[in-house]
Structures are given as C-alpha cells and as structure tokens.
C-alpha cells in the first residue's frame, strides 16, 4: 500500500515520542487498543493547572505506520490547546491531515479515543471538574 | 554491489532462471505449434517439447511421465486433486481430512465441498506446525476418501512427516494428496518413497515461469482416478482439457532439471544464508521468536516474530527489502495469519511476524544488509512501543484489561 507523504514523514520522524510521569497529578494518560488487534496507543498530556492549557504531550504506539502517524499528529494538535479544546478534536481532522485511506480510518479513531482517555484520566485526577465547561462528558 | 530492493520473498514467487527463459524462447515465435496437432511438424515439435518437459519434472519427483497432468499451477492442481477425488469416489465415502495450516487453495476447496455434502476434518497442528500422526490415524473413518496434507508450509516452512502420513493412508486404503508447491525443487521429494498418490506443484516457485504447474497422479498401486474439473478436448488423458502451454511446460521442465542438478548445493547454500540471518537477528534482539519447527523446516524459510513491534510498521521501515508480513493490516478487522494462529501463537505475536524466503540469487551481502536493517528498525519501533516499555517496567501484558476495538 502506498502511504501519503505526511504519514511517511511522521513515521520517519515521529514527534513527541516518549513518556511523562503518570503519577504526576497534572498528567493524564490514555492507553487504548489491544495487542491482539495490532494497535495499542499510549498518549499523555501535561496540563498547566493555572491556565488549563496542555503544555506537553507524548505518545508511544504499537501499530502500523498510519497508527504511528495518527498518534504523532495528535500530540502536535494537543500542545497549546486547553483541555476543553482538546476534547473537541475529531478523528476526521486526522484523516484529512494525513490523507488516510478508508482502511486506515480506524487508526484515527483510536487516536481520538486516546485523546479522550488521556483527558478523562487527567480530570479524574483533578477530582470534581473545576469549571462548568469541563462537565461535558467524554 | 547491492541492488535495491532486495528480494527475500521467494515463497511468493521466484525470479526466473535465465537458463529457463533461454529454453523457452524458441517456443513462442518459432516453434509455436499446438502439441495436440497430429498432422504436421509444428504439432510434432511442440509435442516433443512437452514430452521432454514432462519427463524432466517426472524425474525430479520420482514419477513416470504418464503420471504427470500439466495444469496452470498449484491452485488448479489442488482443486483438481481434491474435487476430482471427492467426485470420483463419492460412492465410497464423503469424508476428507486436511490440516488447519494448509494453503487457501486447499482449505477453500474443502470448504466448497462441505457445501456440497462432504464432511471435512481440519487437523490441528502442534506449536511446531506438525500434524499429529495418531490424530490423523484416529480421524480416518470408512467414509474417508482423501487425506490432503501439504509437504512444506508456505509461511513457516514446516515440513510435514509426509512419508509416515503416506504410509498410514496406504495402510488404511485412503488416497493421499500433498501440496508440494514449496517443497518440489527445493528438497528431495519422491512420490515412491514418500507414499504419495497425488501431488501438486508449480513452476514459478522453482525459478520457472508463472502460469504452469502440474499434478502427479499415481498410475499403479493404487491407480488413482479423478473426475475432470475442466471439460473440453480431452487433453492430458482426459484429466484436464485445454491447449497445452508449450513454452511454459518447456520452462517447467528446464526449471525442474536445474533444481535437480543443483539441489545438494542449493540446500546447503540456502540454509547457510538462512542461519546467518537467524543468528544475527536472535543475537542482537531480545524477545524474538522463530515460528514453526526448527528441525523440520524448508532450508530457505525463516519466519520470525519480533515481539512488541507491529509487522506492517516494520515492513514500512525496511521498504528496500521485499519480505512478507504475517499480519494483513489492510482492513478494519485486523486479521493476523491463520497459520501462526494455528500454532497457538498469540494474536499479538502473529501481528509481529515477518517471513523471509531465501532463494537461488540471494547473496551474503544482501543477508547482512537485511539483518542490520531489521535490527535497526526493530530497535527504533520498540523505542516507540508502549508494550515494550510496559514489559520492561515489569507489567504482565496478559493481565492488562485492553479496550479491544
């Protein structure tokens, strides 16, 4: 299968690979997928407690090139957004940005799930949501 | 000097040997006759060439010329053998025995016959890919007409105990078909000593042309009968109608002759290259496993799982090397190899496997380049793998509650 240039670029030079301290109260961790399905993504965010802005994002992915590219792109999209804004990211944005073919759309869905799971974990650590907007369920 | 891409997918197909092409060329434009034309020299020349090719392939497998039915390849031969026996011996019984790791040309043929009232037993295999002879013996009933077990597996290279299987079938009075596609021309195969009644083979897996192959059909002790699956002019003693592919058959014969002449050296050479690749990979990378039996294995096959690395992403990283992945991540329902699953390998390891198929034209330099490149890319992808990280932290992945999707 031919990969788009953007998928190849993220595969060859993945952005923000690594791990944040998952015990840090300001870090949210999402782990989605399953080894037997051939895709596992771990996506982490570190949120500035004063501004609610995501200051750092890291990922590690077991999966095909499109899965790696989707999660790499997701970390780029997350940085600088507030947690609320991050919750609005849709898999279709990833599909469009990476020109994913139909058989690879599930990779972008998994990336969206990973973002949501990381936000959920962060909010759970914060206890009760701090603001009204945060009460939107994920 | 290395030339890219490097071809290491010799189970899929092989590069045609230039000597084979040379033998074939006169039979396209010069000696173009129809081998079935009895009235002129064009036909006679073509027939002579066909009979020479038939003799060459027969000699390679210990058969006689009259026992070779020429076909378009191993898929057709498998269809003809299995459907032909099922139809011809329907009065005797309707039960067929095969194995879970067979090629789709055998499995899907059996599935079709199930729709038409046949009963099929799919024998499981052990972790080494071998069928259990006691299980085979127990599966045979008085309704069994055919056992079809492949000679060497196309994914994991496992060589089945064909001689013993043949002996059991003979003892029980059941016909034995083997798909010899990956074995014929690569290792010594004899329909006599291996007790084979029917055997499929293909030219393009042994440095011959695509689109030609054959089926060995035993003529005595026992004389095997088949119902033709292709009707027409009654070619190939009525077993397979259709004008013979004369240049293809010349190529098949020449390829068989070359395999026969060089077999001892080629086996030594292929296993040396294979072991060189295997030893390098296993010594440099942890959590790396060989799939299938190490002892009962085609000399040119290596199938390895690199745990915590997904196969397609690995292929993407070694895109200047042509190999094949055990997982086909091309649909939303990711299907890992059914052969690896039959070995009891977890789906995660099945997703992490690569098949290397070494051939006549591979060099030491190509093997060294491949080993180094695979090691580099596996390390890179493991740095990226959350699974590898978790295992290194001491997490038992089997105890994690995964959100399967």
Reconstruct the topology from this structure.
The complex is a heterodimer of chains A (138) and B (405).
Chain A: H1 5-12, E1 27-34, E2 39-47, E3 54-62, H2 65-78, H3 83-86, H4 91-98, H5 105-125
Antiparallel strand pairs in A: 1-2, 2-3
Chain B: E1 6-7, H1 18-24, H2 26-29, H3 41-61, E2 68-71, H4 74-88, E3 95-99, H5 104-115, E4 119-123, H6 133-139, E5 144-148, H7 162-172, E6 175-179, E7 198-202, E8 213-217, H8 246-284, E9 288-290, E10 301-306, H9 311-317, E11 321-322, E12 324-325, E13 327-328, E14 335-336, H10 338-342, H11 347-350, E15 353-357, H12 364-383, H13 386-392
Parallel strand pairs in B: 1-11, 3-4, 3-5, 5-6, 6-7
Antiparallel strand pairs in B: 2-8, 7-8, 9-10, 10-15, 12-15, 13-14
Helix pairs in contact in B: 1-8, 3-8, 4-5, 8-12
Describe the structure.
The complex is a heterodimer of chains A (138) and B (405). Chain A is an alpha+beta fold. In chain A, 40% of the residues lie in helices and 19% in strands. Chain A has helices spanning 5-12, 65-78, 83-86, 91-98, 105-125; strands at residues 27-34, 39-47, 54-62. Chain A has a 3-stranded antiparallel sheet. In chain A, helix 1 crosses helix 2 and helix 4 (91-98) packs across helix 5 (105-125). The longest helix of chain A is centred in the C-terminal third of the chain and has 21 residues, at 105-125. Chain A is globular and about 45 Å long. Chain A starts with a helix and ends in a 13-residue tail after the last helix. In chain A, 46% of the residues are buried. The model of chain A is unreliable at 130-138 (pLDDT under 50). Chain B has 405 residues and is of the alpha/beta class. Chain B folds into 2 domains: 6-11 and 263-392, Aspartate Aminotransferase, domain 1; 18-258, Aspartate Aminotransferase, domain 2 (3-Layer(aba) Sandwich). Chain B has helices spanning 18-24, 26-29, 41-61, 74-88, 104-115, 133-139, 162-172, 246-284, 311-317, 338-342, 347-350, 364-383, 386-392, and strands at 6-7, 68-71, 95-99, 119-123, 144-148, 175-179, 198-202, 213-217, 288-290, 301-306, 321-322, 324-325, 327-328, 335-336, 353-357. In chain B, helix 4 (74-88) runs parallel beside helix 5 and helix 8 packs across helix 12. Chain B starts with 5 loop residues before the first strand and ends in a 13-residue tail after the last helix. The interface between A and B is medium-sized, with 32 and 31 residues.
